[in-house]
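Pipeline run #58 for the internal structure catalog. This entry was flagged by the ingest filter as a single-chain record with no existing model, so it goes straight to prediction. Upstream metadata was stripped on purpose; only the residue string is passed forward. Reviewer on rotation: M.T. Logging verbosity set to normal.
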Amino acid sequence: MNIELKAVRKLRIHWPIPVETMTQLAGGNLQALNADAGITSLLEELQATPELGGFGNYHHVFESSAGFEGFTVAEGANPTLGTVGQRTISPTFVFTTYFDDALDQSTVQALVQRIVDIHPWEVPVIEVSGPLSVSSSAVQVETRLAS
């Protein structure tokens, strides 16, 4: 097996989930994600975007974790969750995938815009990293003909 390094950028999206979904995930029920319309739309966007999560023979690769996010809503905001002036804690699904570093900036911006368009928050937390390297492997198979 040959190990190569591939130049990529990381896309990380923080997405609110209901407490019930968080509880089911913590209990090992990964099917709980299928019942969440928001997560379903996010995963469908991944499936529909060939630039995301490509690793050789594996497509639409992503990582996820569940956690909590905290924030205080400021005056003038129109929050999906929380009240002005109060600290809010939200169960959160953190979705991480990668795309080729060679992808042009206009394509990256369009990709992020599609996520913003389906995200339930007024100001979604979407991180796009600078270039980094990830390992990529290629299996070489030798075929020998019997003489």
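catalog note: Residues 105-118 form the longest helix (14 residues).
catalog note: The CA atoms of residues 14 and 94 lie 5 Å apart.
status: ready for reviewer M.T.
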